[in-house]
Amino acid sequence: MSNKEITIKDVAKLAECSPTTVSRVINNSDHPVSKDTAEKVEAAIEKLNFSPNRIAQGLKSDRSNIIGVIVHDICDSYFAQMVKGIEEFISGHEYIVNIYNTSRSVEKELHAFNLLKANRADAIVLAGGALMNKEYEQKMRSMIDQLKNQNTLVLGITPHPFDVKNIILGNDKAIEVITDKVIEYGHHKIAYIDGPKKLYTSYLRKKGFKRSLEKNGIALDENLIFEGDFSFDGGRKAALKISKKMDLVTAIVAANDSTALGAMWELNNQNIKVPEQISVVGIDNLPEAKYSYPSLTTIEIPIYQLGTNIGEYLLNRLNNECDYQFKDIKTKLIMRDSLKKI
């Protein structure tokens, strides 16, 4: 028997009952099964090390026990922390967490959704910001309508222009708060390293930066807005350009920590001291921000906690506890060594 797949019929034979009775025990059916028979079935399952065919069960119950998580860059600590929180909260429950890395590609994101739709995923988490692309938006709206018709729960982190449950992180407010602090420390010549142009999160963070300048009476200099892509390398490339304009800049506000850390690395490579010659701040409070040299001043968005909150929310909703309220995510200013008063 060890050389072939154990089936429900093998369990029924050992327990001396029908396959239907075994199925009722496995699925906690409302149909009565005597305590003695149920114990025999459970003993047979344990002895044979039997695992129910979840795909077949899903076809009958219209549930797949699949939760899809769509991330933009699994190597980015932001997404790694979030996925870790989701997976650790859901671990121990009978769900499969499928992770799709899309590199912010419209095609890859649509492909991931199509796969999850075809496999009748119970829930999908859009872990990254919305992609600003008309074709993507049009196709996604249609797909989300279809997903809703098959009772798939769709959750978006930061606003998405679709009819889904959106978790608002306050991206624009976070950048506004840290830019206010930079200005409070005497900096008026401030460079900004942006995120990916097609990402709505980038739009929101840049909006917060502009709002802080306007509020504090500082004119926006478009020549001090530098392209970035939320990556270490993107921050490094932007800092190389900034290093040639040191007479115009006393501080850099980066759209995220990875960008800020890359910028600090390149400035150091150009023998420009942080914060003595130029201050640098970020947003997210990734684990590595604490250990950079100098340590990075940033805004904490508790990403791991966000992940566990997502996991808890999904489990409650999938178990029909619809009154569950998503817990607030509180941001916090983390003062470290990369910001200097002038």
Automatic annotation (TrEMBL):
The lineage of its organism: Bacteria, Bacillati, Bacillota, Clostridia, Halanaerobiales. Keywords: DNA-binding, Transcription, Transcription regulation. This is Transcriptional regulator, LacI family. Residues 6-61 form the HTH lacI-type domain. GO terms for molecular function: DNA-binding transcription factor activity; transcription cis-regulatory region binding. The keyword Transcription regulation applies. It comes from the Bacteria. PANTHER family: HTH-TYPE TRANSCRIPTIONAL REGULATOR GALS (PTHR30146:SF109), LACI-RELATED TRANSCRIPTIONAL REPRESSOR (PTHR30146). The keyword Kinase does not apply. It comes from Halanaerobium saccharolyticum subsp. saccharolyticum DSM 6643. CDD domains: HTH_LacI (cd01392), PBP1_LacI_sugar_binding-like (cd06267).
